[in-house]
């Protein structure tokens, strides 16, 4: 009987902790979990991807950096195709949801021009291997998540 009370208490605590998270945090957590699944079965091939690094993640350019990662994630090579393709699609779809994108910092107008224009295009970021690409993507997601806490 005591064990079942403990289990019920643990479940109740989990629900309360989940209720405190914003829709953006829940979506980001889902994307991070799916990315971790992909990372575990990813083919560590020599494929290279354009990747923003932590030095490139200025507040004003977070939106374009996220789009850069999102646009390339489906190109990752995975060893277990069927279940992981679903994860890749989920990452791509969830990371473009308004609940995330609309909450990202937007750039103020500077002398009549958008500051966002100063952000690098995806193609200009240095190329990295798939492992570093995923690591940089995780770093960006963690930065976004932490800014919402």
Index terms:
149 residues; mainly alpha; Growth Hormone, Chain: A; two-stranded antiparallel ribbon; 6 helices; globular; secreted; Interleukin
CATH level 1 class label:
Mainly Alpha
The number of strands is 4
Instruction: Calculate the mean pLDDT score and round it.
Output: 78
Bin the strand percentage.
5-15%
Number of domains: 1
Note the gap between the termini: 37 Å
Our Rg estimate from Cα atoms comes to 18 Å
Tell me the CATH architecture. Up-down Bundle
- Order of adjacent strands in the largest pleated sheet: 1-4
Shape: globular
Signal peptide: 1-19
Keywords: Cytokine, Disulfide bond, Secreted, Signal
Protein name: Interleukin
InterPro entries: 4_helix_cytokine-like_core, IL-15/IL-21_fam
Describe the structure in your own words:
There is one protein chain. The chain has helices spanning 2-19, 23-41, 62-72, 81-94, 98-101, 130-148, and strands at 48-50, 109-110, 113-114, 127-129. By secondary structure, it is mainly alpha-helical. The protein has a two-stranded antiparallel ribbon. Strands 2-3 form a two-stranded antiparallel ribbon. A hairpin with a 2-residue loop joins strand 2 (109-110) and strand 3 (113-114). The N and C termini lie far apart (37 Å).
